[in-house]
Write a structure and sequence with these properties.
By secondary structure, the protein is α+β, with helices and mostly antiparallel strands. The chain contains 7 helices and 11 strands. It has 2 domains: 98 residues, no CATH class; 127 residues, no CATH class. This is Integral membrane protein.
Amino acid sequence: MATTEDVEETEDALFVLTAVLLTPARFPSVLGDDYPEACGVLGLEPYPQGYGLVLGQDGRGARWTVVVDDVSLVACALAAWDCGMEYDLSPDERTVVCALPGWPLHVAVAAPGVPAPHDPLPGPGMEDLQAPLAPPDSSQWGSEQRRLGADEIALQWAVWREQFEEPETSADASGPGGAAEPAEPSHEGVRKVLREAHAYVKTPPPLGRIRSSFASDGARILRADGPGWSMVARTDDIAFVLLDNMPGEVLPVGRGSRLPGLLKALDELAARPA
């Protein structure tokens, strides 16, 4: 791995463009289904306190991802930016863990006055650099795109929820007062996801594979991932499932009598933002 000295040797300071958190409760899910997997992609130890990822360009325009252990600093910057406020994100060199070539995510902006973003060019002292990080190909469908799709649903829950009615009801399954309950999911892939999610309750999965974030009216947005699948749910509503083998498809799961208990149990296991 490179250090910040390698970045500075290529052309002075780094122009910071954006940043993201890499913690058990909040990490770029494009990197993996859980926190240890995401850390492994970047060659980092999955320390519980997490990291901040600072994305920028050097003076020659090269893309760099600088990993810092000052999580609070990056969190403050993100909070300020989300509120439309300026914040000078300038990590102390003592907090820098390493600098990795490339960006793992798409960045829509570029530093002014420097060449267009590009991967660092080979040069003296850079022979041991790993292959540059790069965002996934948006024209393909796979695990990365499936997780990015789940990210979008979690971020825009209300928009997605409006597109789906409660899944079909079963005429022979009556609840209190004779009200029909949603039928058992007919899609085998969805049934498999629910079985694996139930298994998480008995045997907790790796850190970050279940995450919980704030939602309105006292509810939570719950995110769970597993091999080949992602599930996004609101604890007081339905769930959505995405599968690696169903490109671009979003499959709704009705509440019925079982989903509320599952979501409650998963939420109790979930990693939450500090």
